[in-house]
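Human: You know discrete backbone vocabularies at least as well as I do. Show me how you would write down a chain together with its backbone fold. No explanation is needed for now; the record alone will do.

Assistant:
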Amino acid sequence: MYELKCIIVDDEPAAIRLLERFVADVPFLKLQKTFTKPLEALAYLESETIDLVFLDIQMPQITGIQLSKILKPETQIIFTTAYSEFALDSYDVAALDYLLKPIAFERFYKAVMKTQSNSFKSSKKQDDKEHYIFIKTDGKHNFNRVFVEDILFIEGLKNYVSVQLQDEQIITYSTLKHLASRLPKSQFIQIHKSYIVALTHINKIENDTVWIDQKQLPIGNTYRKQFFESINKRQL
């Protein structure tokens, strides 16, 4: 099953506690954070990549419906509310499901299982991207076409990114996060705040070091668990 990072946005602490228990009982859901204030959730979502949002509708400052219209289109939404009259509005924003409080676990589980089908489609769409990308170099209209399979690793250098290929290095004015969004997720993984590596080009892994060609790259504490989980899925 596809692991999904999720958050809960609800102005009622009791409702959050119930959803926290439900999420903990579903192995493929990983709760990142909870919010009682929708605007704080919005600020968090602008800088973080989250797969699924459990979103209340009637909240102060901004409603769940209004918030959902601002989110990134790839973010999946499951509405949780005590008011059945909002059901039609939820379909207008392509919500995955609509859970009416009080929520039973069986109904919750049925809703989150829909994410697995959506995640498969999203992953396939990502993997079906072109086998090359264009990377901007010096000059307003200067670009290099780079085949994805030639990328060994990517290094973040403050306001620049270094793309290491098999036979050259390209430096571009960008961010690691932006470049990562253009690459197939099944082929690349971040191992450090400054490094993204191509899984197919890893020669060996020794403790907290990844070897690509003759280059040793560190595995950061923040990324260690996710990295080794990915590696373990590929081992014989």
About this structure: The chain is about 30% helix and 35% strand. The radius of gyration is 20 Å. Confidence is low (pLDDT under 50) at residues 123-130. Helices lie at 13-24, 38-47, 64-68, 87-92, 105-127, 176-180, 221-234.
